[in-house]
Structures are given as structure tokens and as C-alpha cells.
Specification:
- By secondary structure, this protein is mostly helical.
- It has 3 domains: about 1-45 and about 145-190, no CATH class; about 65-135, no CATH class; about 210-245.
- The chain contains 9 helices and 3 strands.
- The chain has helices at about 5-15, 35-40, 65-75, 80-90, 105-115, 130-140, 145-155, 165-175, 210-265, and strands spanning about 15, 20-25, 30-35.
- Strands 1-2-3 form a 3-stranded antiparallel beta sheet.
- Helix 2 (about 35-40) crosses helix 7 and helix 5 (about 105-115) crosses helix 6 (about 130-140).
- The protein is flat and about 90 Å long.
């Protein structure tokens, strides 16, 4: 569960201070936490590469990092194909790098980042600067300071109009500092289970006539779907046959041209 009012209050009041610690006042209680405190509370690393929106680390291994070059190293299409297709679609000067062009493993890694570790409110397929740097670090087995990443992403998300991330993490921090939660409104989070609920029986119950009508409707619908499926299969077979005929005709024309060239020689 998470406490939506407390999460909003947290985002409204927390500030980052010198040394990348943060402080906030909630329900009259002053709380200050260092990166080490955040890491210990959430069970995440508080040492390693410090990655945040708009900045590129200047530590060893990042000297030649380039967003575009790294993106196309994971892309299924070349840089030339990308810009050609982009120019054909739009004259916009904005550059959007999509995970749809990447191979499956890299695409899944990006989705995990965009949905779980540095959550976004929308445009999940678009790769932002932060996700690109995190992917670069992960694929090169660099140690990442996740406490710093989360803290800076909280700060960045506060200025957006989308939802506020890390609700469970913030709730865990509040609990660790003894904030009273019993009277706070909350929402449950977890797996949802879809349970089939049949339509209620008609007034007066089911009659043989009503059951017959329902079965007849199902039979008509099933027959219609079956005819549509056979029609689609026949259409695909016909298209495949036409394609083979065109290929054979082109091959015959090519053979005829080759024979004419040989005879002329």
C-alpha cells in the first residue's frame, strides 16, 4: 500500500542539500537523510556512478560516451536509415530515439528502466538521456549509485505534470522514521485478479426457448467467424500464388534477356 497524501506532501517539501543528502518536514517531523541512509533504508547501492538528467559523468569510462553513437550500436537500423525515415515523416528539429528500433534484450532493459527504476509518466518507448546513460553503465558492468539516481529522479519528476514516482519507496522511508500512518488514507498496490462474473439470470429464470435462442446465436456467430477465417486463408493463398507467378515470369524474362545478350556477343 501507499499513502497518496503523504507522498504529495513529501514531494512538496523535500529539498536536496550539499553532499546530495535531502531533508524534508512532514507532519511536523524534520527528517534528513544522506545517500548512505537512503541506500540502507531501501536496500540499494549508495556508491558508484552518479547519473542524473542533463548531466554526463566525468569519471573513467565515459570519455567517449555519445548518445547517438551508443543508440545506434543497439539499433536494428543504421544511422542513415534512421535519419532518412525521420526526414520523410517530418521536418521537425526535435530528435526522438525510440526503443522500438532496438533488439529485444536492449528493448526489455529500457522498458524495465522506464517502468520500474526511473519511472516515466508517458512516452515509455522514447529513450531519455537518463535511461541512455543507465543502459550504457549497465551494459558495461559499471557500479551505479542507485540512491543518487532515485533522489535526482525524484527532484526531476517534481517539475513534471505526470504522476509522482517511488510511492512505495517513500512510504518505506516514512515508516522507518516512525511517521504515524494509521489514520492516513491509503491505496492498495499489488497484483489484480480478473474473475469471470457471468451475467445474472433473467427474471423468471432460463426457459428452454431462451436457451435455444442463445445457442442459436452462438452457432451463427461461430459460423460467421469460421467463414471469415476461411476467406482470409483463401485470400492469403491467392496472394501467395500470384506472387510466385510474378517471380517466375520475372525469372523467365531475365533468362530471355541473358540469352539475347549471349547471342549478340
Amino acid at each position: 500500500m501507499f499513502y497518496q497524501d503523504l507522498v504529495r506532501e513529501f514531494y512538496a517539501h523535500f529539498t536536496i542539500v550539499l553532499g546530495c543528502a535531502f531533508s524534508y518536514t512532514i507532519r511536523g517531523i524534520d527528517i534528513a537523510m544522506s545517500l548512505e541512509d537512503i541506500g540502507a533504508c531501501l536496500g540499494i547501492p549508495s556508491e558508484g556512478e552518479r547519473i542524473s538528467h542533463g548531466f554526463t559523468p566525468d569519471t573513467e569510462g565515459w570519455e567517449n560516451f555519445n548518445n547517438l553513437r551508443f543508440y545506434f550500436s543497439m539499433s536494428r537500423i543504421s544511422e542513415q536509415e534512421f535519419f532518412y525515415a525521420r526526414h520523410a515523416r517530418s521536418n521537425s528539429t526535435k530528435l526522438f530515439l525510440s526503443s522500438k528500433n532496438m533488439y529485444v534484450n536492449d528493448r526489455m532493459l529500457h522498458y524495465f528502466l522506464a517502468y520500474m527504476l526511473v519511472p516515466k509518466g508517458n512516452n515509455y518507448a522514447t529513450i531519455g538521456n537518463t535511461e541512455m546513460q543507465l543502459m550504457f553503465a549497465i551494459k558495461r558492468n559499471m557500479k551505479i549509485n542507485w540512491a543518487y539516481v532515485i533522489l535526482r529522479h525524484m527532484e526531476y519528476s517534481r517539475g513534471l505534470t505526470s504522476g509522482l514516482p517511488y510511492t512505495r519507496a517513500i512510504t518505506k522511508i516514512l515508516v522507518s522514521y516512525g511517521i504515524e500512518l494509521r489514520r492516513e488514507p491509503y491505496k492498495n498496490m499489488g497484483r489484480t485478479k480478473n474473475v469471470y462474473a457471468p451475467h445474472p439470470a433473467p427474471e423468471g429464470g432460463y426457459t428452454l426457448e431462451l436457451i435455444y435462442i442463445k445457442i442459436h446465436e452462438m452457432d451463427i456467430r461461430h459460423s460467421s467467424e469460421l467463414r471469415a477465417m476461411h476467406s482470409n486463408i483463401n485470400f492469403l493463398k491467392q496472394q501467395n500464388r500470384h506472387h510466385k507467378e510474378r517471380v517466375e515470369e520475372e525469372e523467365e524474362e531475365g533468362d530471355g534477356e541473358n540469352e539475347e545478350m549471349e547471342n549478340s556477343d
